[in-house]
Each structure stands twice: as C-alpha cells, then as structure tokens.
Amino acid sequence: MERVELSVALRNNRSLKNKVESESGVVLSDCYQCGKCSAGCPAAFAMDYTPRQVIRLLQLGLGGEALKSHTPWLCASCQTCYSRCPREINLPRLMEAVRQEAKRRGIIPERKVDIFEKAFLDTVEKYGRAHEMGLMVQYNLRTLQPIKDALLAPPLLLKRKISPLPLKIKDIDSVKNIFAKVRNEGGSKQ
Amino acid sequence: MKYAYYPGCSLEATAKEYNLSAKLVAKKLGIELWEIPDWSCCGATAAHNRDYLLSLALPARNLAIAEKEGLDVAVPCAACFNRMRTAETAVRESRDMQKRISEILGSEYKATNKTRAFLDVVVNDVGLERIKEQVVKPLKGLKLAAYYGCLLVRPPKLTSFDDPEEPMTMDRLIEALDAEALSWSYKTECCGGSLSTARTDIGVKMIYQILRHARDAGAEGIVTACPLCLLNLDMRQAQAARVHSDQLNLPIFYFTELLGVALGYEPKDLGLDTHFVNPVPLLEANGL
Asked: How far is residue B178's CA from residue B262's CA, in Å, rounded to a whole number?
C-alpha cells in the first residue's frame, strides 16, 4: 500500500464510513482493536486482511482498501467474533454491509461466491425453495467448471438425496412478491 | 406438546434422513408436529449476505403462517433456526421493522410466537428423564463427539438455549442414551458452511480440522444437529482426508438418528444407510 495522508483520507471517506455504519448498525469507533475477533476467526487463514484490520481500515478512512478486500466475502457468518467481542460489535453484519457496498461499486473480489449466492436466490425466487441439484448445475455452468463435484452427483442421486427436478411451492406468488417488494424498497439487486 | 414444524429445503433433499428420523422420534416421544403448509426457503446464507431486509422477510413468511395457528415453530436445521430467530427478534424489537415486514408479506406478523431448535425441544421440553424411560436399546460402548457448529449456539443472545463456547445439550442427550460424550475442543468450530461449495479449497481445510480433532479425542463418530455440518463432514470427508494425506472413517450422525436407534427403530428406517461414510458397521459392532 502506498503512503497516505490520513487526515485527508478520513475526510474523503466519511460518506463510505457513514454508509456501512448505518446499514450494519455498527459504530466503528466502538472497536478498540483488541483482536479477539481475528484470533478466533476460523476463516482468517484464507483472508487478506483479518476482520480487525478491516475495521481499522474503515476507522482510518481507508475504506477503498476494505472494499477491495476478500475478507468480507470469505466470512462464513459463524458468529464467533460477534459472540466474543467485548464491545458486542456485530462483525458479520459489518462484513455484509462492506461487501454489498463493494458490489454496488462493481467490486467483486470473490466472483464464485457471488455467482453461487445469486444462483441460490434465483432458485428460491423461481420455486420458493432451494433446489440443490439445479443449484449445483447452474453454479457449475455459470462458473465454467462443468465437472466440479461431478463425482458426488451419482451417489447423491442413488441415495435419492437430490432430485433432478425442482419442487415449486403452490403460492409461489407470495415469495415472488417478497423479492419484488424488497427490490422496490431500494434493497440491493441481490 | 404441539409445534409448527419447519423442515427447510435441505431436509427435503441431502438431509432427508434428518427429516425422517426427526418425525419418527417426535412421534415416539409424543411431540405433535404440524408441518407449515406450503413453507418456503428461509433464504439461508445467500439472503443475509446480499440483502438484510430479504433475509428477514423470507423466514418471516413461514413464521407468520405459524403465528396464525398460535404455534411456536420447531426447526431441526441449525441454519434455518438461526435465520428465523434473527427475523423474529428483529420484528419483536422494532415496531418500524414489524411494519415493514408485514407490508412486504402482505399480512400482519407480530412475532408473538417463537422459533425453537428441535434439539432444544427434545432435550428441554420432553426432558431426558422421559427419554431414558423410553430407551430400549442403550447405545452402550459408543464413543461420540457432540458437534454443535455455529448457528445452533451463536450468537448466544439470539440462540439462547445453550452456552456458546461449551454447549452441553447434545452431550447430555448422548449420555442419557448410555453412550459416552467425549470432551474435545472443536465442538463449536465452523465447518465453513456454504464456503465448501464456492471455495472448496478453504472449506476442506476447516472440515479436516474438525474431523481430525474428533478422531484424536478418541471419537468413533460425530453427532450433529445441522444438515450443512453433516453434509460437509460426511460427503467431503474423503476429499478432506485426501488433501491432508490422511485416512478417516468417521461416521457422522444426526442426533435424531441415534436417538431413533436407542428408541428401537431400525437403522435403515431412520435413513442411516444413506450416508457417505457408512455408520452401520459401527452400530453393528456395538450390537445395535
């Protein structure tokens, strides 16, 4: 990272800071950087910044760097950090707000995670329920990995643990309405 | 003892044996389950990662149906349980949110009913004493690691029925069935959840740590209350072992399956023949 003038960075990044704070309900200045969140994070080994560092970046006005980070996309929402934080900071909610803002700006550091979640919600909007078989096929096609986990499919089918055809709920309109109204409320495009 | 029952999408597919065994043990223990008619997906990880409001409205649709019946909702899946608790709490704590969610659903939802983990219902509402009275095949000799994962016990102010660091509900059930519940350090570690699909490389590392620590503690099997935990630990066990040049043969059980065996059901009727790591030889070796 290049050298930055922190007072300028802080001034320029105030709107981003306010945005993630209002969307997550987290007050960034609550964090005194003890690091307990990151010591217990089971996915930290795969992250570029630890959860504590993501908060520090936002506190210092270096939100642009936080938006590029893979960390919010690799957070498994296991709630360990939130359960242990002495300041009761809801880090998983903060990570969600950061990645949603990144996505709005077209920054998607973990494209496969994004595609998987989109495929998941598409099946829910269409059928009212998640359909695991269809989801895997869609995910593989959209990520150009046609044979990923292909060896797992025959035993799953044999054990009748996945079905080739989706089951649509009767009142699918009520679920479609939920998606439509949330979009109208100015929610993200999902 | 009557509850609305929300199986969730996994219990219709990869976790169908969880559904099967939950319904059988409920019947035996006198728990009446009223399956929410035409229930829909809770939105799972994808919804809360992408849109907070959507992540509340999707589970609320199901909770609202149960509320009209005046019933609390029993949920076997730890992830659905967590999402539903999140939704009901958000609605209960804020009038503004209650209005917004009711508006999105197109019907009034006040969160007067409560979501309960099926494990909590079995252990705390039925009670271990009553379960013990009904055990016909004690699981004597089985050494088991109770694995809670994340969403059953965290965050504690939301899940509320057990300790977030050293939960014991499942351990107490295992002991009540006469098996041995081992002390081990990974009972609340995360299996990676849905990361194992999009980032399998990261997922298998998290899965392996849990399996290895259970084995090293002397476990012959792991007991879960979550479809995604079981899928990860069972279906991806061979892959996790291979990546780490190890060999593992650890059957993974739903607590309802072992409870079902102890209550006298045949393993096959409980769906125990549908796992990737076959648990039947371990049961047979112990005369079950």
From this structure: 9
- Short-list A75, A111, A112, CA closest to A94: A75
CB contact under 8 A, B106 and A188: no
Query: In sequence order, which residues have a C-beta less than 8 Å from that of residue A145 and are 6 or more positions away?
Result: none
Instruction: Report the DSSP beta bridge partners of residue B117.
Output: B75
Query: A159-173, B7-21, B256-270: which has the minimum mean pLDDT?
Result: A159-173
Residues, chain B, total? 288
A10 lies in which domain range?
Answer: 6-104
Residue B11 to residue B8: CA distance in whole angstroms: 6
Whether A6 contacts A45, CB under 8 Å: no
Q: pLDDT, tens digit, for every residue of B27-39?
A: 999 999 999 999 9
Regarding whether A135 and A49 lie in a shared domain, the answer is no
- Return the residue of B nearest to A155 by Cα: B276
Q: What's the alpha-carbon Rg for chain A, to the nearest Å? A: 19
> A83, B43: Cβ pair inside 8 Å?
no
In three-state secondary structure terms, A189 is coil
Cα–Cα nearest to B109, from B40, B61, B58, B38: B61
d(CA A158, CA A161): 8
* A76/A20 same-domain check: yes
* CA–CA distances in Å: residue A149 to residues B1, B11, B43, B257: 42, 21, 23, 27
Are B45 and A77 a contacting pair at CB < 8 A?
yes
Measured from the Cβ of residue A87, the count of other Cβ atoms closer than 10 Å reads 13
Shortest CA distance to A96 belongs to which of A11, A20, A13, A18?
A: A20
Interchain contact, B40 vs A116, CB within 8 Å: no
Are the Cβ atoms of B54 and A99 closer than 8 angstroms?
no
Mapped onto helix, strand or coil, the DSSP state of residue B265 is coil
CATH class (in words) of the domain with range B127-285? alpha beta
pLDDT surpassing 90 at residue A3: no
pLDDT-wise least confident of A143-157, B100-114, B136-150: A143-157
Paired strand residues for B35: B5
Q: In what order do the strands lie in the sheet with B252-254?
A: B180-181, B143-146, B221-224, B252-254
> Which of B9, B100, B198 lies at the smallest CB-CB distance from A130?
B9
Q: Which of B158, B183, B247, B194 is nearest to B47 (CA)?
A: B194
Domain ranges of chain B: 2-118, 127-285
Facing residue for B104 by CB, picked from A83, A133, A178: A178
CB A138 within 8 A of CB A98: no
Structural domain contains residue A1:
no
Dihedral sign computed on CA atoms, order A83, A88, A93, A94: negative
Residues B205, B210, B215, B217, CA torsion sign = positive
